[in-house]
């Protein structure tokens, strides 16, 4: 099975409700989709969102990196040369991690299709069911409480509450949501770098003393502020998780050695795809550090790739934040993978099990 050609397209899917974090507000998914073609007629699918505020990647940079730097180096290669291909992808240019992720996802899709096996089995097997949390966007307190109650009534048992804009209001937001759902749902917080280290410690002290129990606090301080992450991790009882602080395996090793977080959030769009995500999961397992598998605003193309990885690495990936498809008004992907509220059930079709993708404009 040799790579012969590729197509790029823009995927456009409206969100159920605007997605609001400390960093940005988004109303629709507009992601680049890559379809890699082969001499056997098999097609591999990949996806890259332009999350410029986190990864620095824009639609223009993703298209240019795939079209001009990565894919020309892969045409003619057999997909079974997986390790050589991932080396070429990672070495084709620096940064551009979302573009690299899209290409790697499509290549792993084809690699598993070559063996006529679902990707999670190629990656090590496991039970193909996961249960994800759902994100509650940052908003007025009443709206966040109403959204939280609605999510619980829809079957979600873990809520990821966005905070990080105003520390005083954030404390009120969390207390109000906790009071409304505490017996029915576990709360995770994501400040998306919006607090200082002192603010984070003070806020978590206040919440802990008020009896608010939290599953974790994600990225309380700026991504580059590892000292700040370490300061918070040392002082609060709530587990601290890194997101914007850790992209690739080297950063994960440094963070673990500094004890600057308790948990690592792995996202394919930060690692540049599956090969580095696998390395991070293996490193974390060596150090006995738990991981979350997370996503950006992604549809079920790249989210399903992340889900296959999480199934295969469930011994270390114990927390699931793969709610991208749940936040969308429609699922543009035709496949047997099932998204039913929090439950994700992977298909046993070869590769990622993608039959076709709707809502695409070819580029
Ligand atoms: C969608 C996911 N639950 C999430 O919250 N991801 C964000 C970043 C998403 C974005 O801005 O596209 C995160 O974990 O920080
Ligand atoms: Mg985050």
TrEMBL record:
UniProt GO BP? peptide metabolic process
Is-annotated flag, keyword Isomerase? yes
Question: Per the similarity annotation, which family is this?
Answer: Belongs to the mandelate racemase/muconate lactonizing enzyme family.
Provenance organism: Paremcibacter congregatus
Known Gene3D superfamilies for this protein?
Enolase-like C-terminal domain (3.20.20.120), Enolase-like, N-terminal domain (3.30.390.10)
Keyword Metal-binding annotated: yes
Q: What is this protein called?
A: Dipeptide epimerase
Q: Specify which residues bind Mg(2+) according to the UniProt entry for this protein.
A: 190, 218, 243
Keywords recorded for this protein, A-Z? Isomerase, Magnesium, Metal-binding
Give any GO molecular function from the UniProt entry.
Answer: metal ion binding
């Amino acid at each position: 099975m040799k790579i012969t050609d590729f197509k790029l397209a823009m995927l456009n899917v409206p969100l159920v409700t605007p997605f609001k974090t400390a960093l940005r507000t988004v109303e629709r998914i507009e992601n680049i989709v890559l379809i890699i073609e082969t001499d056997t007629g098999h097609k591999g699918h990949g996806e890259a969102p332009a999350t410029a505020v986190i990864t620095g990647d824009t639609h223009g940079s993703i298209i240019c990196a795939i079209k001009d730097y990565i894919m020309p180096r892969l045409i003619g290669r057999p997909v079974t040369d997986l390790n050589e291909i991932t080396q070429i992808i990672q070495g084709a240019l620096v940064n551009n991690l979302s573009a690299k992720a899209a290409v790697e996802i499509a290549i792993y899709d084809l690699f598993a299709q070559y063996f006529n096996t679902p990707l999670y089995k190629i990656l090590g097997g496991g039970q193909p069911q996961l249960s994800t949390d759902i994100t509650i966007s940052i908003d007025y307190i009443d709206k966040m409480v109403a959204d939280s109650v609605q999510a619980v009534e829809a079957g979600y048992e873990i809520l990821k509450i966005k905070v990080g804009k105003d520390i005083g209001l954030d404390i009120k937001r969390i207390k109000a949501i906790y009071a409304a759902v505490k017996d029915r749902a576990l709360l995770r917080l994501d400040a998306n770098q919006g607090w200082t280290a002192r603010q984070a410690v003070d806020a978590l002290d206040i919440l802990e003393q008020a009896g608010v129990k939290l599953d974790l606090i994600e990225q309380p301080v700026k991504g580059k502020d590892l000292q700040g992450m370490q300061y918070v991790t040392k002082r609060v009882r709530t587990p601290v998780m890194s997101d914007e602080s850790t992209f690739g395996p080297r950063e994960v090793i440094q963070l673990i050695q500094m004890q600057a977080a308790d948990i690592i959030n792995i996202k394919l769009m930060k690692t540049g795809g599956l090969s580095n995500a696998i390395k991070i999961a293996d490193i974390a397992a060596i150090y006995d550090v738990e991981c979350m598998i997370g996503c950006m605003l992604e549809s079920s193309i790249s989210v399903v790739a992340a889900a296959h990885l999480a199934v295969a690495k469930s011994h270390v990936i114990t927390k699931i934040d793969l709610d991208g498809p749940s936040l969308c008004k429609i699922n543009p992907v035709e496949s047997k993978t099932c998204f039913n509220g929090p439950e994700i059930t992977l298909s046993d079709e070869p590769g990622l099990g993608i039959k076709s993708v709707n809502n695409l404009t070819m580029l």
